[in-house]
Here is the input.
Amino acid sequence: MSLIMVKFSPNGKMLNSVLFDAAMDGDDLLLIQDAVLYAVAKPELLDELKERGVNVYACKDDLIARGYDPTTVNVSVVDYEGIVDLIEKNPKIIS
Here is the structure.
């Protein structure tokens, strides 16, 4: 199992698609910084990942900083303590 951390917005970063393609069943994918916009702008992509067995998370503080209510997104929302837990849980981190 791996933790895949995505930090770029959905606006044309090819690296994001590489990271999404690398996500496999049982992996944790964490949206941080501008990547939390996927939870708002591209929920269908995140639904596809979840259907593949990927656990998708978004950073609560990054959603709030961009003016979004964390309770309205269709992914698990984590605070900084939750991010630390994900890092400790996964022996391999891809970013």
Notes: The chain has one domain: 2-94. The domain at 2-94 is CATH 3.40.1260.10 (Hypothetical Protein Ychn; Chain: A,). The mean pLDDT is 94. Helices lie at 14-22, 38-41, 43-51, 60-65, 80-89.
